[in-house]
C-alpha cells in the first residue's frame, strides 16, 4: 500500500453520499490510512509515495496530506523521500521544509537541463529548501569530465557521479535487491562518499 492508494481511497470516500455519517472527519480517515501503510523495519520505517494521481481534482486531499506529513516527519530525526521523476511534487508542496534536495539524473544533457529546471521551479515557488544537490547516475569514464563542465555551465551543485556498475546490472537481471549490493561495488563506494559529503 502507498500514499497514492490512501489518496485514491479518500478521494472515493469524499464523493460518496454519507447520510449515516455526514460529519466524517476526512483528515482523521486519511491520517489513519497513512499510519496504516507505514512499514516498520529494523532501524527505519518505510512509507511509499506511490503512483501519480488519477483523474479529478486532488487539491483538497493534497491539502489534508500536507498537514499530516508535517506532523509525521516530526517523529523522525532523518526523513528520506524517494519521489517519482517529474516536477509536480514541487508545485504541490506535499513535503515542505526540505534541508537537502537531491536531484538524481542520468548522464545526459537533457537530464541536467531537467535538474536546472527543478532548481528554477524551486526558486519560483519560493520553496523552503536548504540546499539543492545533483547526482549523475550511470556515469562512464568517457563522459565524466563533460558532465563536470556541464554542471559548471548550468551552475548545478554536482555532488557525486555514480559509475555505471556491471554488478548492479547483473543483480537487476537476476532479480537480486540492491540491499544485497557488495561493499566493493564501484557504485556503492561512490554512494558512501556522497553520503559523507552530505554529512549523514
UniProtKB/TrEMBL annotation:
Top-level taxon: Archaea
MF (Gene Ontology): ATP binding; ATP hydrolysis activity; metal ion binding; oxidoreductase activity
GO cellular component: cytoplasmic side of plasma membrane; cytosol
Coiled-coil stretches: none
Keyword Nucleotide-binding in record: yes
Protein name per its UniProtKB record: ATP-binding protein
Record bears the keyword Acetylation: no
Gene3D superfamilies: P-loop containing nucleotide triphosphate hydrolases
One Pfam family of this chain: Fer4_NifH
Family statement: Belongs to the NifH/BchL/ChlL family.
Keywords: ATP-binding, Metal-binding, Nucleotide-binding
Listed cofactors: [4Fe-4S] cluster
Biological process, per Gene Ontology: negative regulation of cell division
Matches recorded under InterPro entries: NifH/frxC, P-loop_NTPase, ParA/MinD_ATPase
Database matches in PANTHER family: CARBON-MONOXIDE DEHYDROGENASE ACCESSORY PROTEIN, SEPTUM SITE-DETERMINING PROTEIN MIND HOMOLOG, CHLOROPLASTIC-RELATED
Amino acid at each position: 500500500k502507498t500514499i497514492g492508494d490512501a489518496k485514491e481511497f479518500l478521494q472515493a470516500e469524499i464523493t460518496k453520499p454519507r447520510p449515516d455519517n455526514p460529519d466524517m472527519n476526512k483528515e482523521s480517515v486519511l491520517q489513519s490510512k497513512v499510519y496504516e501503510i507505514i512499514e516498520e523495519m529494523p532501524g527505519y520505517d518505510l512509507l511509499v509515495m506511490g503512483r501519480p494521481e488519477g483523474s479529478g481534482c486532488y487539491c483538497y486531499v493534497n491539502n489534508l496530506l500536507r498537514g499530516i506529513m508535517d506532523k509525521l516527519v516530526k517523529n523522525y530525526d532523518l526523513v528520506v523521500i524517494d519521489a517519482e521523476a517529474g516536477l509536480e511534487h514541487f508545485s504541490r508542496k506535499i513535503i515542505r521544509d526540505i534541508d537537502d534536495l537531491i536531484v538524481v539524473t542520468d548522464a545526459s544533457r537533457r537530464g541536467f537541463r531537467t535538474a536546472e529546471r527543478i532548481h528554477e521551479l524551486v526558486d519560483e515557488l519560493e520553496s523552503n529548501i536548504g540546499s539543492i544537490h545533483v547526482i549523475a547516475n550511470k556515469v562512464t569514464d568517457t563522459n565524466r569530465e563533460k558532465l563536470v563542465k556541464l554542471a559548471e555551465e548550468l551552475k548545478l551543485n554536482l555532488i557525486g557521479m555514480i559509475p555505471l556498475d556491471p554488478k548492479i546490472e547483473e543483480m537487476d537481471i537476476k532479480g537480486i535487491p540492491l540491499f544485497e549490493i557488495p561493499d566493493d561495488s564501484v557504485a556503492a563506494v561512490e554512494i558512501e562518499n556522497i553520503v559523507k559529503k552530505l554529512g549523514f
